[in-house]
Amino acid sequence: MVIAVPREVKEGETRVPLVPETAKKLTDTGMVLRVEKGVGEPCNFPDAGYADAGAEIITDRKELLKGADAVLRLNKPPLEEVGLLKAGCVHVSYLDPFAEKNLIQKLADANVRAVSMELIPRSTRAQKMDALSSQASLAGYVAVIMAASRYGAILPMMTTPAGTIQPARVFIIGAGVAGLQAIATARRLGARVDAFDTRPVVEEQVKSLGARFVKVDLGNQEQTKDGYAKELTQEQLEKQREAMANQCALSDIVITTAQVFGRKAPLLITSDMIGRMKPGSVIVDMAAATGGNVEGSGLDREVSKDGVVILGHSNLAGMVPVTSSRMYSSNVGNFITEFWDQENGVLKLDPQDEIVAGCLVTSDGRIVNQRLI
To answer: Is 130 labeled as catalytic in the residue annotation?
Structure first.
């Protein structure tokens, strides 16, 4: 079986889909691994490292894709490259399946077995393949570091000859994977941290990290079977904004992490709320790529409003590309080895398997994922 790994072509992408360490694990199982020349350059992984791991270095991108039984990527494939894949090829990458209906249909028409890394189930068995969680954790870390570097004061309390400096106040909205990592990072930097989430079940996790949980009575608000927050009603959103407005006014740094998978991000912080914040405060909108949690935030740019700096970068994990590449590479490598039939030299994607059923999007010339039909 031939596995191909092409270079990422998305503008501004700093991460790579496979690192030499994972490449060695794949070739050790008997897979034939071919990587495009320069595949690891953005993270300073030289071609020699892949060659030492047993991979073949290919210069012709089209021939690389045409000869592959499986293709591993980070980002979704360009439409023009789908036709290069042979029938039955397994394609593993992020696909943004709810927004990329044309791409998904084209993959189905090409009889490609497309796996969406966003749809890996959140289960104990699938945890080692969960790329969304691994990248979100890094994004939460980067969000705090970015805010701290942009904020004009230090975060920890410090006693100096000039007096005692009070700790910065950080308010984190959303206590999922990204939010919890943001809480932990802000606490390590010495900030006083408050956090809010619509799911009461995460209160103990927030407290265990040394933060204060901000309680807002939203009525019955549970989480999905995968552990994500359910979408709020308009009435619940208004009540939430009202409670958060006072907390934002007290805070020096606010980080929003709220996203509803497959839908536009909810608006949490309005212009009125920003107007009540202290000049010099910093907001990091981690949902900027899906519409934004903050009114007026700009995608991949810094915006200043009423003296408040708003940061809305779309690829926070990409700001630590070496670490994020290693984590994604491990996730995708774990997926491949989980379903590798070494005796017969094939990938066995059994649609009855709970992980496969969750993330397989197209197969046998049609869209097969129940969430997309």
So the answer is: yes
Which of the residues 93, 133, 221, 329 is marked catalytic?
133
Q: Buried (b) or exposed (e) across 108-118, using 16+ Cβ within 10 A?
A: bebbbbbbbbb
Name the active-site residue from 47, 61, 123, 127.
127
Catalytic residue at 228? yes
More confident residue, 19 or 222: 19
For the question of residue 105 being annotated catalytic, the response is no
Q: Which residues pair with 305 in a beta bridge?
A: 308
For the chain, list the domains and their CATH numbers.
2-119+321-365 (3.40.50.720), 133-319 (3.40.50.720)
Name the active-site residue from 69, 130, 194, 197.
Answer: 130
- Please spell the DSSP secondary structure of 321-357, one letter per residue: HHHHHHHHHHHHHHHHHHTEETTTTEE---TTSHHHH
Q: How confident is the model at residue 271 (pLDDT cuts 50, 70, 90)?
A: very high
With contact defined as beta carbons under 8 Å apart, do 195 and 211 qualify?
A: yes
Q: Which helix (DSSP H) or strand (DSSP E) does residue 177 occupy?
A: helix 177-188
Cα–Cα distance between 5 and 41 in angstroms, integer? 13
The set of residues, in sequence order, having a beta carbon less than 8 Å from that of 267 and lying 6+ positions away, is 237, 291, 292, 293, 294, 295
| 267/320 Cα distance (integer angstroms) | 27
Note the pTM of the prediction, 2 decimals: 0.92
